[in-house]
Specification:
single chain
Length: 80
């Protein structure tokens, strides 16, 4: 549920609309259960961490070739 919430936040869904999206995505959970889970500090921290990681991954994408190099010089024509 935290992963889905973090993806909603990263896609620009306003926090006020999150509960409705979560109820739709997880119909086996009541709105009250979802609200209770979202109030927990541990859940809030998990969502915060996932949003941070997601933001970093989007703002600093790296190709596998570049991420394996020691320096930040792009590889030319696939040569090492």
């Amino acid at each position: 549920m935290a992963e889905f919430e973090s993806s909603l936040l990263l896609s620009g869904v306003k926090p006020i609309a999150i509960n409705s999206h979560l109820v739709e995505k997880f119909p086996n959970r009541s709105r009250e259960l979802i609200k209770g889970e979202r109030k927990k500090d541990s859940y809030k921290q998990l969502v915060t961490d996932l949003v941070f990681v997601g933001t970093f991954a989007v703002s600093d994408p790296q190709t596998p070739e570049r991420s394996l190099r020691d320096d930040s010089t792009p590889m030319e024509n696939g040569n090492t």
